[in-house]
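Async update (no meeting this week)

Hi team, since we skipped the sync, here's where things stand on the single-chain job. The sequence we agreed to prioritize is pasted below, unchanged from the tracker. I ran it this morning and attached the output directly underneath so nobody has to dig for it. Comments welcome in thread, and please keep replies under the output.
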Amino acid sequence: MFELDLRSRKPIYEQLVDKMKELIINEVLKPDEQLPSVRQMAQQLTINPNTIQKAYRELEVQGFIYSLKGKGSFVNSVDPGKDADKILQVKQDLEKMLQEALYLGIPAADLHEMIRSFDGSKGGSGQDDSND
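Output:
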């Protein structure tokens, strides 16, 4: 499915969370698709099952997956209105990062282009493109 960098300073479970989120956001993993079991994933990646369990728990807390007792873990369907608090937090974080980028001298046009390229490659809705 993907590779992890065992030499990275970033914890393995965080790498796993990030990779899984990327697969979900890019719709490689579809809503309600079952994820590999903790045991299967641990064998496939040759890492401790507790690490997989921790990553799955984090993904569940963040709302990317859900678990059914005795059935396994599944990709959660995206409901934009459901995560209003999370969306607000991301917007605030993004605003801070954009201010820092502009302060450091990154031209606004470059930032616009980055957003356009992300929007196209990550499956963004493009709802607010009318403000360009």
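Quick observations from my side:
The CA atoms of residues 5 and 11 lie 9 Å apart.
The helical segments are 12-25, 38-45, 49-61, 84-103, 108-121.
Reply here if anything looks off.
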